[in-house]
Amino acid sequence: MSDIWAPLDTEFDAWRAADLRLPFWWRDDDAYHVTPELAQLNALSEQTGVDVYLAVIPSKLQPDLPSYVANHNNLLPVTHGYAHQDHTPAGVKKCEFASDREDDAVTRELQEGLRLMEEGFGANFVPMFVPPWNRFGNDHKFKLKTLGYKGFSTYGPRRNRWSKRGMEQINTHVDPINWRGSRSLDEPSRIVARMVEQLTARRLGQADNSEPYGYLTHHKAHDADIWAFSEELLKKFKGGPVDLWSAQDMAKR
Question: Taking the complete model, does pTM exceed 0.85, yes or no?
Answer without folding.
Answer: yes
